[in-house]
Every structure is written in structure tokens, then in C-alpha cells.
Amino acid sequence: MTAQTQQANIENAHEEIIHENTMFAEPISYIGKFPITNSLLNSWIVVFIILVISLVIRMNIRMIPGKVQSVLEMAVEGLLEIFDSVTGSRKKSLKFFPFVFTFFIFILLSNWMGMLPGVGSIGQVVAEHGEKVFIPYFRGGTADLNTTLALAIIGVVASHILGTVSLGIWRHFNKFINIQTLVEIPRKIVKEPTILIVNPIKFFVGLLEIIGELAKVASLSFRLFGNIFAGEVLLASMSAILAFGLPIPFMFLEVIVGLIQAMIFMMLVLTYLTMSSTAEEH
Amino acid sequence: MGDLIETFHIDFRLLVAQAINFAIVFAVLYFFALKPLMKIMQERTGKIEKSLDDARAIDEKLAQTREEYNVVMANAKKEAAEILEKAKQAAEEKKKETVAKAKEEIGSIINQEKAKMQHEKAQTLKEIKKEAADLVVASLHKILGEGVDAKKDKELIKKLLVK
Fold first, then answer.
1. Residue A150: CA atoms inside 13 Å, Cβ hemisphere, count?
2. In the predicted model, is pLDDT for residue B117 greater than 90?
3. Does the structure show a pLDDT above 80 at B149?
4. What's the predicted TM-score (pTM) here?
5. Angle at A145 between CA A143 and CA A146, to 5 degrees
6. What interface predicted TM-score (ipTM) does this complex get?
7. Range of the domain at A7
8. Which residue in the set A51, A103, A146 is minimally distant from B28, CB to CB?
9. Where do the domains of chain B lie?
10. Pairwise CB contact (< 8 Å): A76 & B41
């Protein structure tokens, strides 16, 4: 239980139930061998909410917009304008919009769901290693590295798929394992001998790009997870100090953090998509 | 790497589950919300643009029509004025002509009447002369007696006329 020592433990002295903020989502039950973690449960709720909202939107879309639709359209329009500044063209923005916006909504709702009353506080007590451990039924979806890692992988993989589609598999492949530059050496060496030094460097830079891609996944997933998890720990700590009033400003803080993290994730994925859809410039 | 998995309980099955969640959210959001919303927004944009274009076209047409109307009206006015002028001239001419004709006719009538009167006068004079001669003959008959034969008569008349 190394994890346990890292956590802020909140012990109930009377019943000796251990409340802890674990770094991972705990399984609540199993379907076959498949663990249903509290974060997964929360994600399903998010999916359900989005499903309902989408259906409501679907049924209420009118040519002449009502108030809700106007606000929605304004939001979409505003986001598209921000996207334009990244992608450089409205056509690209429109193409990426649904995909990138999905990240935003999914992450935003997951982040905020983690702060709802009941999430993290309603749960079951399970005997573990001879100790009674409190396991909440719900845990913010993004407070589990599995979720953020899945999202990050989807984002980065999507950018690679887009790269191969828009540039062709050969050119995209050469961004990372730059065989093209090595092949070029004998052809151009007479004209410019410096190519003998430059192109191996280019090849090496390409290899670094591979590490860069892994770093993208790591930074995306850990940034989101870290922020949201830290927020939950912060709120739990504040509640432990004084449950009345004290956590409120931190709640506001977490609302903003949740929004900002969702925005950051969205914009980063958008940047990756844009970068991989444009040819590499030398 | 093993530590990482241990610490964060990274589970491939959970990764897949979350990826599926994302896919569902994407599909739902795309097909139910974003696609129709974007479509309708685009449609509306198109409609508004078309309306604006139409309005512009209508304005242009209106201006054009107004111009044409003005031109046509100006032409019509000019033509009307011309026609009026022509009509006036024609009337004037007709008047003059009629007056001239009337004068001529009156003149000719007067002349005719004059000729007639002259003729009648001549006739009357002739008749008077004849009657006078008859009277003279008759009175001479009475004076000379009835027994005057044609020979004598002629001689007498000759004498009288010579005298």
C-alpha cells in the first residue's frame, strides 16, 4: 500500500473506516473479469447526459432559433472563430470541429461531474487487507488516468490518421523516420556537399519527433488527470479541515480549472490535428 | 513503466471502455446535435446571403425601372408637346386654307352673279328693243293704214332706218 501513504487519509475514528483519495479509480463491481470502476461509471453517466442533451437539441432545432438555440449557435460560432485562429481556415475548423468539440464536452462534463455532491462521498465500505476502506460509487471520469490516457491516445492517433490521409502515408512516415533525406544524399551531394551533415541531423530530428509524439500523449493525459485529481484532493482536504463554507471558494476554483483544462485539451488536440494536416516546413 | 501501471492502475480494458465512451459521445454529438445544428446554421447563412443578394437585385431593378420610367416619361412629354405643336400648326393652316377657300368661293359667286346680271340686262335690253320695234311697226301700221304690203313695208322701214 504505497499509494495509501501518499494519500491524504481521512480516518473515521469511531468506525475505523479509511477514507482515502487513491491515485486510481477503484472497481465497484465486475462484469465477468471486466472491472467497473467508479470513474467508468461516472463516464457512463456523462455519456448518458450527452445523449439526452443531444437528443433534446436534435428535436428542438429550428430554422428560426429560440433562445437556447441562439446561445448554442453563438457558442459554436465563437468556438469556430477561436479555431480559425489556430487552423487558419474556416473549412478546416468546420472539419475538425465535431471531433475536437467532443473532447471539450466530454472532459468538461467529466470534470464538473467530479464536483457534484455525492460524487466521492456516497459509496460502500469494503474490507481490504483487514481494514475497512470506503470506496465511493462515483469518481470524476477525468480523475482516472485510464480516461485521460484513452482520450490523449485518441487525439494523437487521430492526428496521425489525419496526417496520413492528408499528406499521404510516405510523407507522413518521413516526418518521423526520415528515409527521404537519407535517399537524397547521393543525388544532391555534388551540388551541395553540406547535405552530408544536414540530412543525418534531419534524420535524427525525425527520430526525436517519435519521442515527441509519446510526450504529447503523456503531457495531455497527465496534465488533465493531475489537475482534476489535485482538485479533488484539494476539495477533500478543505472539507476535512472545515466542511462548511471553506470549500466553496475552492469549488469555484475547480469549476474554472475544469473549464480551462477542457479548453486546453481541446485546443491542443486541435493544434496537433492542424500540424499534422499541413506539410512540414523547412 | 510497470510502476506507472501499478500506481495509476492502468488497465487496457478500461482504456478501451473509455475510448468506446468517447466514440459514443462523438457519434451522438455529431449526428444528433452538431451536424443538424451546423447544417441549419449554414442553411440560414445561405438564406440570409441569398435574401441580401435578392434585396440588392431588387433595389437595382427598382432604380433601373425608375430611370427607365423617367426616360419614357420625358420622351412622352416631348412627343406630346410635338404633337400639340403639330396639331396647332395644322389647325392654323386649315383655318387659313378655309378662309382662302371661302374668299375664293365668295369671289366666284359674286362674279357669277355679275355675269348673270349682265346677261339678263342684255336680254332685257334686247327684248325691250324688239318690243319697241314691234311697237313702232304696229304704230306705223296704224298710221299708214292697213294696206301696206310687204314691199312697201320694207321700203318704209329702210327709209326710216336710213333717216
1. 26
2. yes
3. no
4. 0.72
5. 115
6. 0.81
7. 2-277
8. A51
9. 2-162
10. yes
